[in-house]
Amino acid sequence: MAINDTPRHQGMRKKLVEGLKIKGIRDENVLAAISKVPRHLFMESTFIQFAYKDQAFPIGAGQTISQPYTVGFQTQLLQVGKGDKILEVGTGSGYQAAVLLEMGARVFTIERQKELYARVHQFLPEIGYNPACFFGDGYKGLPGFAPFDKIIVTAGAPEIPEALIYQLTFGGVMVIPVGNDQKQEMKMVTRLGENEFKTENHGDFIFVPLLKGTVNF
Ligand code: SAH
User: Cα-Cα-Cα-Cα dihedral of 197, 148, 70, 207, to 10°?
Assistant: First the structure.
């Protein structure tokens, strides 16, 4: 696939990144990754005025591509280092996975809706991003591929799924929005030892819900 990414798109991304800096995203590696990933290619509609606004956007199957500020905020909390092995729960459009790959991480991403999984599994490699994509229930994580240095959950969970925190390395970090369907609090969980965890809160966000089971169409 020829990648339609022009100087105009790049200019709009630069502006988006300037806006994210003003809103408090400071991690230079996060900002650099957002300035590289062509967000307009991740949307059904390629209207760039939507792609480069700091807003969430519908991607089909009742789901959304997260707002760039939210992607920046979660990614910053994750303290991504080159070579980190990262599990993403909620592939959605694949945009967050692409940002993590730009930062040099090894990415495993899982999605419960087959339609979205299939689309991303085909599309991301076409634009040069190669995460390991899985169709399944991310509540359970990926026990066969654990442990992970980092876990990022991009849907709002009613509580912290126990299966996930036990798939972290010691010293590993999980970032997850936890709450009800109105709003969730961004939690950062660090695994300190076998059964020892530290949890910090980082403010309110609104995500689509983390749901159990899979959707096979
Ligand atoms: N990270 C995405 C945002 C996705 S929105 C992006 O960058 O575009 C949240 C996604 O989580 C939706 O696609 C939804 O279907 C998915 N999801 C919800 N519950 C899930 C679960 N238990 N396992 C895997 N994916 C889940």
Answer: -80
Contacts of 130 (CB under 8 A, 6+ apart): 101, 124
For ligand 1, the distance from its centroid to the CA atom of residue 64, given in whole angstroms, is 8
- Nearest atom in ligand 1 to the alpha carbon of residue 152 is 1
CA dist 122 and 120 (Å) reads: 5
Query: Does 215 reside within a domain?
Result: no
Please report whether residue 213 resides in a domain.
no
Question: pLDDT by residue (tens digit) across 6-27?
Answer: 999 999 999 999 999 999 999 9
For residue 156, give its domain range. 7-205
**Residues with a known catalytic role:** 66
Residues 6+ apart with CB under 8 A from 160: 174, 176, 178, 187, 189, 199
Instruction: Write out pLDDT tens, residues 197-217.
Output: 999 999 999 999 999 999 998
Q: Are 187 and 204 in contact (CB under 8 A)?
A: no
Q: Structural domain tally of the chain?
A: 1
pTM of the model: 0.97
Look up the CATH number of the domain holding residue 160: 3.40.50.150
